[in-house]
Design a protein that fits this description.
Elements (H helix, E strand, L loop, with lengths): L4 H17 L3 E3 L6 E3 L69 H11 L10 H6 L2 H12 L1 H5 L12 H22 L7 E5 L7 H5 L4 E6 L2 H10 L6 E4 L8 E6 L9 H13 L1 E11 L5 H5 L1 H9 L5 H6 L12 H10 L2 E8 L5 E7 L3
Parallel strand pairs: 3-4, 3-6, 4-5, 6-7
Antiparallel strand pairs: 1-2, 7-9, 8-9
Helix pairs in contact: 4-8, 9-13
Length: 368
Amino acid sequence: MHDYPDLLIARADQTETFRNHAQPAVCLGDRQGSIVEPGDRRNEPFVDPRTASRQEPRQGIRHKHQPSLAGSFPRKRNVFEPKYTCNNLLLGVGSVGTVEEPSKSKSDSSRESKSTSGHGAAVGGSESSSASTSRQARDWDDLARVDPLWAVLSAEGKRNGGWELDEFFATGEAEVEQILARAAELGRPRRNDSALDFGCGVGRLTRALAARFDKTVGLDASAQMVEKARHLNPASPATFATAEEPPAGPFDLVVANLVLQHLPSKALARDYIERLIAAVYPDGLVVFQLPTRLPLARRVQPRRRLYAALRGHVSPQRLHAAGLHPIRMLALTEADVRETVGHAHAEIAFTEDAGAAGLRYYVHHRSP
């Protein structure tokens, strides 16, 4: 974060120290009530630099009262006095953009980079354990516990359990139907053997994909979301698993809808786009959506920032009831997405307007 609570607390302590040790002493000499600062050199002889060789040093004025030493002894703090001069709880509010972890030492950072280096998030692999402990997984676990359907599809008036299950899954059915209709026009994918719903949530799109593909996998970073997906889709042949990164594949169709916009950084979003393209067959299709820009309110994200500041002190249920949430947002311009897709040796076959969600991209590998 860009705020530094430890530094401000240290300054508060230093202020207290200066108040105790640097209190000027009142001296009653020739001038009643004059203040003698510590280090005052009034008793040292005066030397005129112009006549230093001829002038005798004159005696300084001796005061009847010596400076008090009472201020050099630490003062006991009143038990009713606040320990800190500011509300330390609110200093954790993050800056615009992603919420960063507290600063770590170089040794901690090096150990963390070694433990998280490399890729590879095969379904059911070791990536699931790291996902369960990440900030991203924790945030979505919170949402899965308090309001999972709204977290997946944050429509107006649907917060706090406003979604009916049939209505909710009907939106996924309609969306998959629209995606596959466009895919048929593009002639991709060539087969309907396998599909991946990356960032599946509770299986809103996964259920519809499983009815059209022989094998469908739904992956999500949140173990709680995956558990909800299994519970809400008991008759679906889809496989649900926990994974934070795209798997190796390959699949005929890869879908990542309302997912990449919630990643911690634009760099990670670009990386995930390339890895989703790598997870599809040469004659397959990748479909994902991203906002092209964010209005000011969504860039500042005050509700998310306050949620992150209070998360260690207040339960997710109470934070959600107060209107706060941990959902982060980012956007990539269309030019940025096109450059990323080209770097992955693929091409954008079609783009369509996704309303407030930005653009939906249909991507496939370049023809040999």
